[in-house]
């Protein structure tokens, strides 16, 4: 076993198929010691009876959804887990249908001790192919779950036609053009190893940014992402300050920020990622000799104003452009 231990967060609306997927994951990974954090809404535990346990441990946070009980309590559970169960291969957190996945993910990004033991591998969102459109109209959280996630599994494809599936995929792509999209029946799929997506590693963020649509993405009349590409180097201090202020003032509007950036005077790419109010900066690969150093950044959130973001970014340009 190696630290940090990878963590997969499962999200998706009530009845989308999270428990079915979880059972698949447990069955397919009998060689691994998985820990499942099952989060319930309400007093009575129902899901834990439905989950096939195998030899794995099952914990529960039973007094409400993770985001409602806030990350403090969730952090305590994680701290206890690290202390009491030091040897395991993977942690899976199944959050309730209405939980905000960013509140769950933030626990793994913001806390240094947790980060040294646990590494967020990916946030996976289960989508009920049959009911997605109705749900998106009625429930804001459903869109946020899709916008925030790294992998989107369009489940229950047995209940819709080919044409309907094409439409569902189109809608999902409009909300999140940066996620891996997979189709499934009862959470069953063989396309990828869901426990090893490495979505938060610098390598994968860099790779994911090779195909990078510039501009704004609008779904259901709401702007869900704003992406920018520019060659002028950024000033690291100015950028950090701007982003901090932005997240403090307007944090609620930003679901997630990902960027591969060129900071003046630094030889390597820098990966910026933010989840809720926490922004992290990690060095990536070196810029190639003689190549234009192009920065790419995407802001994912709710009704984000392109003009203000563009102005903010320009204000962070380095005065020493050609260092
Ligand atoms: N036809 C069909 N039914 C499915 C599929 N996936 C799940 N179901 C059924 O849908 C219901 C809900 O599935 P679950 O896996 O419990 O969904 P969940 O997201 O864990 O549900 P909550 O715990 O309520 O949030 C169950 O009756 C499943 O058998 C699928 O791909 N096709």
From TrEMBL:
**Assigned keywords, A-Z:** Chaperone, Hydrolase, Nucleotide-binding
InterPro entries in alphabetical order: CobW-likC_sf, CobW-like_C, CobW/HypB/UreG_nucleotide-bd, P-loop_NTPase, Zinc-reg_GTPase_activator
Which residues does the UniProt record annotate as the domain CobW C-terminal? 223-317
Which SMART domains does the protein's record reference?
CobW_C (SM00833)
A GO molecular function assigned to this protein is: nucleotide binding
Gene3D superfamilies linked to this entry: CobW-like, C-terminal domain, P-loop containing nucleotide triphosphate hydrolases
A Pfam family recorded for this sequence: CobW_C
| Recorded GO CC terms | cytoplasm
Ranges that cross the membrane: none
Q: Which domain of life is it from?
A: Bacteria
Is-annotated flag, keyword Ribosomal protein?
A: no
Q: Which reaction does it catalyse?
A: GTP + H2O = GDP + phosphate + H(+)
Q: Does the keyword Zinc apply?
A: no
Summarizing the function annotation, the protein's role is: Zinc chaperone that directly transfers zinc cofactor to target proteins, thereby activating them. Zinc is transferred from the CXCC motif in the GTPase domain to the zinc binding site in target proteins in a process requiring GTP hydrolysis.
Family as reported in the entry's similarity comment? Belongs to the SIMIBI class G3E GTPase family. ZNG1 subfamily.
Question: PANTHER family, alphabetically?
Answer: COBW DOMAIN-CONTAINING PROTEIN, COBW-RELATED
| Protein name (database record) | Putative GTPase, G3E family
Which organism was this protein described from? Solitalea canadensis (strain ATCC 29591 / DSM 3403 / JCM 21819 / LMG 8368 / NBRC 15130 / NCIMB 12057 / USAM 9D) (Flexibacter canadensis)
